Every structure is written in C-alpha cells, then in structure tokens.
Amino acid sequence: MEEKDFLLDIVYKNQTVRFKVVNPEAPLATLMTNLRHAIGQDGKLIFDFPSIDSTGAPMEYFFGKEDPELHEIGVLRPRIGRTEQTLADYGVENGDMLHLIADPFPG
C-alpha cells in the first residue's frame, strides 16, 4: 500500500504554493531550510526569502497557523527550550495551510 503524500499549502506575500513534505516528523527548522531551498518546476526558487530587511537587520522565518476561532495567526516556534518542535506538536495535518512569517531580529 502506497503512503499518501503529506501536502501543505504555504502562503507568503499573497502567493500560495502546495508543498510536499517528505518527512512530516522532521523538526520545523529542517522543514524551513528545505522550503528555503525548494525549486519549482521552472527551476527557480519557489519563494524569494530576503536574508535582510530594508534596515539591514537579519531576517528569520517562521511557520504560522491561523486559529480558526480567533482568526489570528500563531507562530510555530521551531524549538521550545531544548526540544525541537515538529508539525505534529502544533496539530498540523495533511492539507493544512501555513503562513510564512518574516521576523527581523536585532543585530
């Protein structure tokens, strides 16, 4: 029996891309790295991730998931304390929509 693909709809700057997650149990930091380097069928990067913002501050990116009741997007932190977080830790399931959130951090 063939396993069903684990697909997420990733939204960034008003663009939505269906992204196949090879290992849904991987840490969120690994998934973000894979997404940053993902190439589309046209041979170009799927998303343009600037590494610095307009002020020159380094940029970090996080996944975010909308709370259906509050209609607010909560940040999925890649680690809590020393524990790496996964999609399952945040209840993310096949077919869910996640947002990419850019976060400049002070240098």
Provide a descriptive summary of the structure in words.
This protein is mostly beta strands and 107 residues long. It is built from 1 helix and 7 strands. A 5-stranded mixed sheet has the order 2-1-7-3-4, covered by helices on one side. Strand 5 and strand 6 form a beta hairpin.
Overall mean confidence score, pLDDT: 88
What is the number of beta strands?
7
State the helical fraction.
under 10%
- The outline comes out as globular
The biggest beta sheet reads:
5 strands, mixed
Oligomer: single chain
The number of helical segments is: 1
Distance from N terminus to C terminus (CA atoms, Å) equals: 50 Å
The SSE order reads EEHEEEEE
In short:
This protein is mainly beta and 107 residues long. It is built from 1 helix and 7 strands.
Defining key terms:
107 residues, mainly beta, 5-stranded mixed β-sheet, two-stranded antiparallel sheet, 1 helix, 8% helix, globular
